[in-house]
Specification:
The protein is 17% helix and 42% strand. With 129 residues, the protein is of the alpha+beta class. The protein has a single domain, classed as SOR catalytic domain (Immunoglobulin-like).
């Protein structure tokens, strides 16, 4: 049976809506580290201030943590983010008392979101002496 013009328009509209809703679910994308700073507070102990950008959509899709990674890839410290930051972008959170193994001159800071996991922009950070 042939499709009528009005039915064709409804079908096109429905397909468009489905495509829009599917893309809106992933529009928040991956979380990016846009800035990171380390301050030495004691011998081998640092405070990290990390700025993230992520288009948080609410509890179903938000930046949920960032990590300090050693050159060999080991996670040294994790800052858990306990809630979405929908109306605060970019945002900065800190983590103090991070003890680093002797001999490390730089670290990498990466972030994680509740949908995509890792994958956004990371920052390589030289540690102050």
């Amino acid at each position: 049976m042939p499709v009528q013009a009005g039915d064709r328009m409804k079908l096109i509209g429905s397909l468009g809506l489905c495509c829009y809703l599917a893309s809106a679910a992933v529009q928040a994308g991956e979380v990016d580290v846009v800035h990171a700073e380390a301050k030495r507070t004691a011998e081998g102990v640092y405070r990290f201030d990390v700025t993230l950008r992520h288009h948080d959509k609410g509890w179903d899709h938000y930046a949920d943590r960032w990590e300090v990674i050693a050159p060999a890839g080991k996670v040294i410290a994790t800052r858990v983010l306990h809630h979405p930051h929908v109306d605060e972008q970019p945002f900065t959170r800190s983590l103090a008392g991070v003890r680093l193994p002797a001999g490390i001159a730089s670290v990498r800071v990466r972030a994680h979101d509740s949908v995509h996991g890792y994958g956004g922009k990371e920052v390589e950070l030289a540690l102050p002496r």
